[in-house]
Amino acid sequence: MNFTVTDGNFAPPNLVQLTGWGTLPSAFDVTGLAVASMAAAGNAVAQLCGRLGSAVPQVSVDRALASAWFGLSFSPDGWQLPPVWDSVAGDYPSADGWIRLHTNAPHHRAAALAVLALSPDAGRELVAQAVASWPGEELEAGIVASNGCAAVMRTGAEWLAHPQGAAVAAEPLVHWGPERRVPPFGRNDAGARRRVSPTKVPGATVPLAAVPGATMPLTSAPLTAVPTAARPLAGVRVLDLTRVIAGPVATRFLALYGAEVLRIDPPGWNEPGLEPEMTLGKHCARLDFTTPAGLNRLEELLAGADIFIHGYRPDALDRLGLSDAALAERHPALVNVALDAYGWSGPWEHRRGFDSLVQMSCGIAHTGMGHFGRDRPFPLPVQALDHATGYLTAAAALDAWRQRLDGTVRNARLSLARTAVELMPTGPSRDRGELPALDAHAREPENTAWGPGLRLPPAVVVDGVPAWTTVEARGYGSAEAAWLGDR
């Protein structure tokens, strides 16, 4: 999985038909990154279809829709989403530059305010006054040491000279672990050990919009546990231990091609502004891994899973006794795909991070500031590192699963910072046309647990392989922590 940059822009992906026009305004080729990463995921679907016995289908990606999916694919109809950002999250002038505080999680907010010696209810004005007296790197280090999240704005050159920037630049885009051999599946036997009669998911009413080539109304499409070239992940169980954007984007994509996705969150975790976006196609449960019962239940779920996708930092699962080596020993056939923020080597390999922080660290926000002539950090128009890494994660999981069918298992690792390495050499897209307006009729009606809304049609089209789900977007903790056939 490699991207090619030609004359400052991403080259059109091989064997992928491009449709649509327009580009996101940015100092970098963000729309090109959207198209390239989505094409990688679509090609992985097509290759899996070929493994399941069909001719490898044609893949197409729409530029405008790819750009739009890198924002929000769902818009409420008659109600409003809660704010995505905490009230004190954002960029602040420090004594010697700029720093971004990421405070969406309550414990991250508490850590930042404690380091600033502020009360838990402090507002932006007080935070700004406190931040202004701190040297940026000193405040960043203090917040990180207190288990919070912050990043000073660095230039691209400063990042490349930084030990972490140098470490990430030396990593592959997708790091594949060593191979291990397990018994292969038969040609179409993936999921056969838990065949069920075709049936609709109880209570599900709203699938994703049909795509060209779909052969059945999606409102009556059955859920089957037998994979076919038209439903290549049917019967494949995906255990999702990811949060925020990149990982949930990956598992949402897998759900649209038939995977049974079970997302697990800890008690109390909430991100209401993103729930309708990130829970489509998934059953969402809660477990407390700090308790023996919760950890035992996780182990049982892993025993029934085919693919495990998690966003834990490199040392976090190790402390739970779930290191790569331990999982490979106990569950040798399990496909294990991991992603993090700052990479898997270097002095920051254990650092918490998010898209907006990585953009500050690696020079993206600084470059945008200069390109647009602004007097403050100017990030990408969307959280492109998250979304691109999400689709690349989905592609890695699909490629790994295809190899698993033939008896080879390999783990994969990706990171937001490594995805940024692909974006940084690009410049503004040469396709300077504005993105077309996505009128309401271009979106498809969808019900959610919070109310009705409209969902964008798919940006990726795999001929003869419609992307759909009968599992509506529902809240975290709305399902039982069990696989469907075990409930």
Automatic annotation (TrEMBL):
PANTHER family: BLR3030 PROTEIN, SUCCINYL-COA--D-CITRAMALATE COA-TRANSFERASE. It comes from the Bacteria. Keywords: Transferase. One of its GO terms (molecular function) is transferase activity. This is Acyl-CoA transferase. It comes from Arthrobacter livingstonensis. InterPro entries: CoA-transferase_III, CoA-Trfase_fam_III, CoA-Trfase_III_dom_1_sf.
